[in-house]
Amino acid sequence: RKEIKIRPGYKPPEDVEVYKNRTAEAWKTRGAGNVPGAAGLNNDRVDGDSKTSNKNAKRREARKKAKGEDDGKKTNGTEVKSNGSGKIQSLSGALSKENWRAQAEAEEVDPEAEKEKQARNLKKKLRQARELREKREHGENLLPEQFEKVIKINELIRQLDSLGFDAEGEPKAKA
């Protein structure tokens, strides 16, 4: 019998992969709750991610301990343990998704740091307003919003003065 010659790279029809349209597949499985196009993604974590999450868990735990020592009280009775797989287990008094914002708002803020933050913000606005004033003096046309910024220069200086900073945004020398 004569030998059958097969071209290199030839795949028989039964071995050829059938083209699958992702949109059509998503439409067929729309009740399954899958995200279109995400079917091939692997949800398993890589070892590097678990190392990072372990490290972050240790940092959070150290921060909570340091905060508890600073305040002189226990940190909500929360103990955080890491179980090797990168998942954090909270044993008691853990923050839920609903009240984490309330906890963040309840934290005390250093008034001196808050003043410096406001001063930086005002200093930035003042710098932008002065740049716009220079543009106007050189003959450029300004938008109404930009013109309003130029008008507010004196108000910004007054606010900086009330925070204890001079017109340049530098702390006033105490005499």
Describe the structure.
The protein is mainly α and 175 residues long. The chain contains six helices and two strands, in the order ααββαααα. The chain has a two-stranded antiparallel sheet with strand order 1-2. The longest helix is centred in the C-terminal third of the chain and has 27 residues, at 111-137. It starts with 21 loop residues before the first helix and ends in a 12-residue tail after the last helix.
Largest beta sheet: strand ordering: 1-2
Radius of gyration: 31 Å
What is the terminal-to-terminal distance?
112 Å
* SS elements, strand count: 2
Strand percent estimate: under 5%
Structural class from helices and strands? mainly alpha
Main sheet properties: 2 strands, antiparallel
- Poorly predicted regions are 73-94
Label the overall shape.
elongated
- Tell me the helix content: 40-55%
The averaged pLDDT comes out at 75
Could you outline the blueprint of secondary structure elements for this entry?
Layout: H1 22-28, H2 47-71, E1 80-82, E2 88-90, H3 100-106, H4 111-137, H5 144-151, H6 153-163
Antiparallel strand pairs: 1-2
Helix pairs in contact: 4-5, 4-6
